Amino acid sequence: MVYVGSVGTGFKADQAMQLRATMDKMKVSAPAVRYTGRRKNLIWIKPTLVAEIEYRSWTHDGKLRHPSYKGLRDPADNSAIYEF
Asked: Global pTM?
């Protein structure tokens, strides 16, 4: 796994509350991937959820450009995850 940025849009209020409740149960003390960002006081979770994320392109440093949350996927669908 590689960190490719964060998503801050596309969440409906009820989805965000439900997702937060789910993620609160998955907290861990350290990230599952190497994080070189500058943000402080982050909360890390165990990476078991699979989200559908729409994005415009990749930045020159390998991050997603304009990512938007579309919903959670069935974890069994993770074989269909790819970068093009």
From this structure: 0.71
CA–CA separation, 31 vs 26, rounded Å? 12
Q: Residues near 56 by Cβ (< 8 Å), separated by ≥ 6?
A: 65, 66
If DSSP codes are grouped into helix, strand and coil, which group holds residue 75? helix
- 28 CB neighbour count, 10 Å cutoff: 11
Q: What is the per-residue pLDDT across 9-54, written as a single tens digit (0 to 9) for each?
A: 999 999 999 999 999 999 999 988 888 888 888 999 998 888 889 9
Q: Are 55 and 64 in contact (CB under 8 A)?
A: yes
In sequence order, what are the residues at sequence separation of 6 or more whose Cβ sits closer than 8 angstroms to the Cβ of residue 48? Answer: 26, 75
Rg (CA), the chain: 13
